[in-house]
Amino acid sequence: MPLQFELCPGRMIGGNHPCFIIAEIGQNHQGDMEIAKKMIKMAKDCGADCAKFQKSELEYKFNKRALERPYNSKNSWGKTYGEHKRHLEFSHEQYRELQKYASEVGIFFTASGMDEMAIEFLHEINVPFFKVASADANNFPYLEKTAKKGRPMVVSSGMQSMETMRRVYKTVKQHNKNFTILQCTSAYPLEAEDVNLRVITEYQKEFPDIPIGYSGHETGISISVAAVALGAKVIERHVTLDKKAKGNDHEASLVPSELAELVRSIRLVERALGSGIKQMLPCEKACHDKLGKSVVAKVKIPKGTVLTLDMLAVKVAEPMGVPAEDIFQLVGKTVTEEVKEDESLLSEVVESYGQKAKS
Predict the structure, then answer these.
(1) 266-318 pLDDT, tens per residue?
(2) Total number of domains in the chain
(3) Are residues 261 and 293 located together in one domain of the fold?
(4) Which of 1, 20, 33, 131 has the fewest CB neighbours in a 10 Å radius?
(5) Structure pTM?
(6) Is residue 229 in some structural domain?
(7) CATH number where 290 lies
C-alpha cells in the first residue's frame, strides 16, 4: 500500500483515505479580491478540500526582458507581460487576508510557489503544503530547497519525462518523505488523447511508496473521475466562475456545477471501488436465494449408490442443495438416503461430503 501521510492538519492522503480534491483558483480571480473570496467560498460549497492560488515574486520568476516583453494578447491586463502579471499578482497582505478568509470558511488554503522567494513567503504564512507547478518540476535547486522546508509537497509533472520524474522523486525523497506526484499534461484545454492516464499506473509502479494523483486541464469531469478509479489520491482541477472570462485558464476550468458534480462522482467511485476481496456480499443474498443454482438428481438415486456425474444436474432448486460449484466433489461419494429424480441433493445425505474427492 502506498505511503499515507498528513497533507493538511487532520487530513491524511494515500492508502484508503478519500481522494484529496484541490480547486485550483490560480489567477482566475482576475486580480480582484472579491472574486477571489467568492471562489474560495464556491470551492468550499462544492465540497473541495483545498482552495489553491499561484504566488510569484515576479522579479525572481522572470528576467527583466521577459517582464518588458510587449503583451498584446486578448487576455492581457497590461501593455507588457510584466504589467499583465502585476495586475494578477496579490500582495503578501492580500494573501494573508485570503488565507484568513479560507480559514473562516473552513477550507484548506495554499498556493503554488512559482519561484524560490514565493516558497519563502508561503513557508512564512504557514501553508499546510507546497504545490510545485509543472514548470518547476525540473528545477532541481528549487526542489531541493523546497523539500528541505519539511512541509508536505504536491508535485505536478507536466512537460517532464519519466527519467526526469525519477530524478524528482530521488531529490525530494532525500529530504522529505511526505510528497505526492501528479500526472499532468500542460495544455489548456487538454484533448483526451493527450491525457495519458496510464502514466498514473506507471508512477504507481515506479514510486510505490508515495501516493500518486492527477492534475487535469481537460474539459468536463469524466477523465478526472477515471483517474480516481485508477488510484489517484489527489485530484487538482482549475475552477472559474465564468469560462468566457478573460484569461488563458478559464476555458479549461470547471464552473461551480461541474466542480460539485466532480466531487460527488469521485465520492461515488470511491464507495464503488470496495475492498478488492471477491466474495458473495450480503446484498446479493436475495438474488442468490431466488436464482442461485445447486445440484439435483437427474435420475432416481437409490440409497447406497456411489454417485457418478451422469446422475447429477445443476438447477435452481427448492430447497437449495449442494452448491453448483461442488458438483465434481460429489463424484465417488455414497448417498445415505434415496434421492428422487429432480430432487435437491442435500449435503446431509452424501457421505463425507465436504472432503475433497480423491484424485
Answers:
(1) 999 999 999 999 999 999 999 999 999 999 999 999 999 999 999 999 999 99
(2) 2
(3) no
(4) 1
(5) 0.92
(6) yes
(7) 3.90.1210.10
